[in-house]
Amino acid sequence: MGYLCKVQPLRFSLVIPAYNEAALLPRLLESVETARRAYVKGRDTIEVIVADNSSTDATARIAADHGCLVATVEKRVIGAARNGGAAIAQGEIICFVDADARVHPQTFNEIERALETGRVIGGATGVKLERWSLGLLCTFAAMVPIVVLMRMDTGVVFCLRDDFKAVQGYSETRLFAEDVEFLFKLRALGRPRRQRLARVTTAKAIASVRKFDKYGEWHYFTQIARLVGLMIRSPEGATEFVRRYWYNDRDQ
């Protein structure tokens, strides 16, 4: 007599958009594995998808070697990479995290707890920085009032997969701030249901400060001021700036 093996349905899909992330992707995947093993419903109810955004390094191979699904996304726009990974996701809950971050060991348990209340449409975990300096502290402090007032955050962003589809995912025309727009769309979807965005700060991710390592501890204030000026005076110049700062700084 044969035995039927009960296969658990996938609960989570974690999508990692990645462009030339061979250097930092392994440490993220190690932190994800720790969080998967800590998840109360079982490690194998979580799938990990790396959305390889036309990398020229070993990003895709590293992802495959770690047992991740790899979604190849050619359009070099962050929203397209996120959507490309989400397109093959099978989990009931879909999450997104940057490839240079690290996740908290209780990430999946804490997101589960937030969504189980029925009062949450989605949200984010928030972050803490991997190191501190005076410049980083001032930059972080400048962001806190915006996060509190908007009741939005960064880190591991999450929602139900059905709700991701309902808001049609991320914008593929925006070169940046697509994550903010996405959360606004989720908030609007949840409002008639009396659901809100949540900040799951009990499981903050660790954010990379590599931009500060490369451009300087105080660069955020000068660069953002420059970007705002370019957006007013020269949309083409602003696009070139964004491409250079966010998209092409790891070209090989």
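Above is the first protein from milestone M3; the second protein from the same milestone is given next.
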Amino acid sequence: MGTGDIGLPTLRWLFSTDALQLVGVVTQPDRPVGRSQRLHASGPKRLAQEKGVITLQPVRLRRPEAVESLRELRPELIVVMAYGQILPKAVLNLPPLACLNLHASLLPKHRGAAPVQAAILAGDRETGITVMHMAEGLDTGDVVLSHGLVIGRRETGERLHDRLAELAPVALAEALQRLLSGTAGRLPQDEAKATYAPKLERDSGKMDWSQDCWHLDRFVRAMYPWPGAYTEVQDAAGERRRLKVHRAVPLHRRTGEAGAVLGTGARGIVVGCGEGALLVLDVQLEGRRRLPASEFGRGARVAVGNRWGPGQ
């Protein structure tokens, strides 16, 4: 059961292993995307169809007909990663072996829909994949095992997502070996250490220039490529537009008013923060292509003293 692309390496492993027979894939319904709003199938659905495996797409998994469709597959084991719906008790109780969830953090830290971005934003040095028995709460089940991963100094959300995706089937293979041999433990999570990573929306990438430069550096990297860190700027015609910031580095020794342009040059555009400054390297004005910040600055006539952010 999965919808996000982070689960694709795990699904490929499930197709390839001789230890299991994959009887079905459950994913979210096709969603409209882009300006054309054409329906788009999830990566797991496309892979399942390519392999000729039954695919179910219930709108609400809690509905009796959805549960019955799953029951007809007679699953002995359910593996979940980035599915997008909370599983009801009726589904959790279906498989006699286990209902396992692969979560992209070291639980109980960063429960919820956006653990990859949350780990970078928090400045964590390590994250990983946790394999757990599913419970009715949000990522609250007993842990079978965790595999850790060191977060790189300049790691982006995209890069960390892909590395965790590749780690997931490794963790699952070990967890299944323990389950099938009867050696798998069940470690309850420490609720006192739990944190929550809420689902990201399009506006989750809005930059707050009153934050310090280290936070904003992590923010830009965490939000890349989606939803993308952004701020508001005034274009050459004097209109306020949304500007995505794709790459930036912190300058802790520069000081200036938060949100004010402190300098422009061949390297990029320096913008003041609550503490320090941010050297903006790559940007993209809404409806336009991605550009080096220096090139954007010349075209948009960005000058020292210009203000970025709301209320400029």
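Note on the second protein: The first helix runs from residue 8 to 16.
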